[in-house]
UniProtKB/TrEMBL annotation:
Chief location category: membrane
Membrane topology value: Multi-pass membrane protein
Identification of the protein by name: NnrUfamily protein
InterPro entries, alphabetized: NnrU_dom
Pfam families registered for this protein in UniProt: NnrU
GO terms under cellular component: membrane
Domain NnrU stretches: 10-196
Subcellular location: Membrane
Originating species: Beijerinckia indica subsp. indica (strain ATCC 9039 / DSM 1715 / NCIMB 8712)
Residue spans crossing the bilayer: 7-27, 47-66, 78-100, 120-150, 171-189
Keywords annotated in UniProt: Membrane, Transmembrane, Transmembrane helix
Amino acid sequence: MSESYSVMTLLICGLLIFLGIHSIHIFANDWRDRQITRLGLMRWKGLYSLMSLAGLVLIIVGFGQARTQPVMLYDPPMWLRHINALFTLIAFILVAAAYVPRNHLKAAIGHPMLAGVKTWAFGHLLATGMLHDSVLFGAFLAWAIFDFVISRRRDRATGTIYPAGSLQGDMITLAVGAILWGAFAFWLHRSLIGVNLFA
């Protein structure tokens, strides 16, 4: 068991870096504004992107290493694995809603990207029972829940209102989300992660 924990060091470090850099606006928003003023917006974005990429690489490499020494926490039934496909579809639609203008999801919840991450992570926690899966998806789920709550509270405090949704925006959101989900579920997930979702 101790070897399994040690092999997850890179994964945990990657999560700390990636989720940490994406939490600056939660815990140190004033500090971020000062750094942007001091460094300039483009330089700040460059450093932010570089740190995010470093964290993501560590997550990918660390997750791959952890999979070589799996520790099973629980054995999910097959029907949960199939339901995860539905959770992932919903997650892709929510993520699409963050970028498609004037859709009702964005108007209603304000932060569909975070809602999509929550849905994706929760579905995968239900469908996977390995220790490394629980560390990865549990960390993303906890971060997304906390960020969503803080972001919604900040919206209420500042009186932020998002543009009203439209039927056209909803249709584009559904189409983009479904297409991206299909490409990922039937092709990219197997080629990049090595797992066939429908096997």
